[in-house]
Amino acid sequence: FPLSPRFLGTPSSVQTILLFNMSVTKGNKFVTVFIKILKIFWWNGRLKGMYDYYSYHDPDTFNVPDWSSVPRTWERALDLVKGPEPDMYECFIHRDYHPANVLWREGSVSGVVDWVNACKGPREIDVGHCRVNLAMPYGYEMAEAFLRAYQQYADMCYNRYWDIMALITFLDGPPEVYPGWEAFGMTDLTNYLMEERLDYFVLQLIKYVSIE
User: Fold this and answer.
1) Is 49 left (phi over 0), alpha (psi -120 to 50) or beta?
2) Tens of pLDDT along 167-206?
């Protein structure tokens, strides 16, 4: 699995090709490369000297987004992350793993870029962050497909708590279309659509948590 040091921290929008007809299934290269990266560092001896993960925003002080059309659902979601933190697996994490940071060459993954925020932390937050970054350009079902494939390949249970934490970390004002998506041909996205998709994402999370 090639990962050239010269790519680390390089702006991903310059290097990345997005696959707009991405199929997320068990064995899909986008999923398997993510697992392989983490497995390289899944022992404590390699984590010495790294800084620890922390949320960019405090769940206790994070406000319900004023752009949301479902503020009460966001309130319920925020209440969930103010409770006890669920079990997690600490390891080396990318901290910004999403499709625009994955390089492809002739149908195969050739590298993963933008490691500037890599640290020691819960692998689940990388999964949640990637799910948010799939739900915005592609929709909720793509995020679910990624999770199903990831769970099958990594043999793990996943708590939706981490989706909410990823949302809190991700949001710094109203959601906007990431310029990298437009640069690679996704011209049908709007900021309003991003708001709708994140609201729908939160609605589905609460439904799922209610069933558990």
Assistant:
1) left
2) 998 888 899 998 888 877 888 999 999 999 999 999 999 9
Helix, strand, or coil here: 103? strand
Q: Which residues make beta-bridge pairs with 120?
A: 52, 92
Q: Which residues contact 102 (CB under 8 A, 6 or more apart)?
A: 16, 30, 33, 109, 111, 112, 113
- Give per-residue pLDDT as tens, 21-68: 444 454 566 666 666 655 555 444 455 667 888 888 888 889 999 999
CA atoms within 13 A on the CB side of 178: 19
Helical ranges in the chain per DSSP H: 12-15, 29-40, 71-81, 123-138, 140-154, 161-170, 179-183, 191-211
DSSP state of 53: P
